[in-house]
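May I ask for a single protein's sequence together with how it folds?
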Amino acid sequence: MTIDNIEISDNSSVFIIAELSANHNGSLETAIDTIKAAKRAGANCIKLQTYTADTMTIDCDNDDFIIKGTIWDGQNLHKLYQEAYTPWEWHEELMKAAKTEGIVCFSTPFDKTAVDFLEKLDVPAYKIASFEITDIPLIEYVASKGKPIIISTGIAELEDIELALDACRRMGNNDIALLKCTSSYPAPINEANMVMVKDLAERFNVISGLSDHTMGVTVPVVATCFGAKIIEKHFILDRSIGGPDASFSMNEEEFTAMVKAVREAENAIGVIDYTLTEKQLKGKDFSRSLYVVEDMNAGDIVTEKNVRSIRPGFGLHPKHYNEILGKKVLENIKKGTRLDQNSIS
């Protein structure tokens, strides 16, 4: 998968996405400042959401349209989306700001009109939100554009994932990534289930990653260790500005710390290699080897008392210890002398 000339593969660095979502709080200036801050924090990408309240739902006060069981309890769906949406007339300016900063920018469309709009802006990729994974017609339409598709799996059962992948592939699009996601805001760390990152990649033969709503760096680091190649976190200039997503969004300092931790985790993972580096070879000086620990005369018998396996590691390998016990030394040997095979018969 390649997004705006950035390769995302098993051999690449983690592609880190800062999710703007509603964190502009209705201000274009704040949105642009957030893009600049995301770049400073080390993000590879800033991601938008493209919808209006009317493309997301209908203006209705029936009980079905009142949110329950989340941080937005009691709010009307239409009113929430009216507050949270990113005005479409901002998109082109935001994408220009991202280009100026040298950061990738694409979006999550929530209906076909959003896809058509984003196509006119020539976005390099698309994201399918967790709650839209069951919208097969939308996924088919997005896939038909032939661009990379990143799909969050926050509410998905196994069949939902299979249906979404089938929809993409039915349209001839195999450029797919799946993100493990816990659709809880903020998400409890004990529900992160990061082993799924590895399973998604292996089971479905796709790039896998994490769309994270926990606070802190632990889950992204664990995801990286399980092979995540994309990590997405909600990003905000300052939680004090408020907004629907503020409580589970990282500020610049926190996001910077996360990026640093992920990059360190990548370096720590390394490769499967049993050869030693120069520094590791130097460490062998402190391993054990066979030394004479009492003065010995030619003809003396090697015993557990006069020869021991001790540090440092310049003498004979300890694997020879049992085979030399009971043999004679051929010459006088002073205490503290490395033992070698030529001294024994």
The two ends are 65 Å apart (CA to CA). The first strand starts at residue 2 and ends at 3. The longest helix spans residues 252-269. The chain has a mean pLDDT of 95.
